[in-house]
Specification:
The chain is mainly α and 254 residues long. It has 8 helices and no strands.
Length: 254
């Protein structure tokens, strides 16, 4: 089922549940019930519950967005390091240069196709990708420079291989979900309490109040969905993309 459809159904379901409970409660209320008798302390508590929960939601959204941005930065750093390797080897002999570039292209092609699907489906990188990167490392480190010019380029190439390896390791650590289960418990429990306070204020079934209750509930459902979507940077709707690889290696992995 598409994620946008899940979002719409979840928001509609929350709205329907709130409206139905409100209508049922109104029918069961005694005839002499006076909504104006809601104590001021309940209104005060409701206000602070909403404020605290809004802060928690904001922090959660900021945290998962930062995680997604960091994951995209790792992808970008890895792609740039590999591109630098491919460009810097131009001063090497043709056979060495072509071998390194072919291995870089093979690695990039594997990342943007097979490994990207593995990260989305299984939440982890592939062993084949590790082997291909090790091959690039051997290509670079095993070559013995023959001229001073090649010797000057040797260490920067080794540094770029190390940078690509570090970026790959960071990307691998970013593939899974970042929000602990206890945080989700707090977010969902807070949503239940916050929406439940609507009934503590003795909401009636007027059209205006029902619309506001439904929109308020739908907003919370949307924000929770947003957190869930950002929580896994490589496997959900607004996922980090492989565009940096495709931009720097346009002929690979197409």
């Amino acid at each position: 089922m598409p994620e946008w459809l899940v979002l719409i159904l979840a928001m509609l379901a929350v709205c329907v549940v709130v409206v139905v409970i409100t209508l049922v409660r109104h029918r069961a209320a005694p005839d002499d019930e006076d909504p104006s008798e809601t104590p001021d302390v309940i209104e005060y508590m409701t206000m602070w519950i909403g404020v605290v929960y809004a802060i928690v939601l904001g922090l959660a959204i900021a945290g998962v967005w930062e995680g997604r941005s960091a994951a995209q930065d790792h992808v970008r750093a890895e792609a740039v390091a590999l591109h630098e390797i491919s460009e810097r080897v131009r001063i090497y002999p043709a056979d060495v240069r072509d071998r390194i570039r072919d291995d870089v292209n093979a690695y990039v092609g594997h990342v943007v196709t097979t490994e990207w699907r593995a990260m989305a489906d299984d939440g982890q990188v592939t062993g084949r990708g590790t082997e291909l990167l090790d091959r690039i490392r051997r290509d670079v480190t095993d070559y013995e420079p023959r001229t001073d010019f090649e010797a000057q380029a040797y260490q920067p190439l080794v540094d770029q291989v190390s940078a690509a390896d570090q970026a790959r390791a960071a990307r691998a650590e970013s593939t899974g979900e970042t929000m602990p289960g206890v945080v989700w418990f707090g977010l969902i429990g807070g949503a239940v309490v916050t929406i439940g306070m609507i009934f503590a204020l003795q909401i009636r079934r007027t059209r205006r109040e029902l619309i506001l209750a439904g929109l308020f509930s739908a907003l919370i459902a949307f924000l929770l969905f947003l957190i869930w979507d950002f929580d896994a940077p490589f496997s959900r709707g607004l996922a980090a993309s492989a565009d940096p690889f495709r931009l720097l290696f346009p002929d690979v992995g197409s």
